[in-house]
Design goal:
about 90 residues, mainly beta, 3-stranded antiparallel β-sheet, about 0% helix
Length: about 90
């Protein structure tokens, strides 16, 4: 498995941690992570679970669970339209 770039290498990082005393799924969840938009980019998403198996079972209670989620992305090419500095409101530095 490739090593993850350092945090400073990402343009956007979203991290969240959710804890629950009890969690129950009435049906098996269907999840999808997409990175739509223009321009070439390098993106990743990852979750770490505590006391929550993969996959979860519908109708089963899970106690004292934690899910930590991280999503990160960065532009790797020239922004669509060829403008440099598009990440700063689309204006070029003078």
């Amino acid at each position: 498995m490739e090593s993850e770039p350092e945090p400073a290498a990402w343009d956007i990082v979203f991290e969240s941690t959710v804890r629950a005393d009890r969690l129950r799924f009435e049906e098996e969840p269907s999840t999808e992570v997409r990175f739509p938009g223009a321009g070439e980019r390098d993106s990743m998403s990852r979750s770490e679970r505590s006391r929550l198996p993969r996959p979860v079972e519908a109708g089963r209670d899970y106690d004292d669970v934690t899910v930590a989620y991280r999503l990160a992305t960065r532009i790797t090419g020239t922004p669509e339209g060829g403008l440099e500095g598009a990440g700063s409101g689309g204006q070029q530095a003078s």
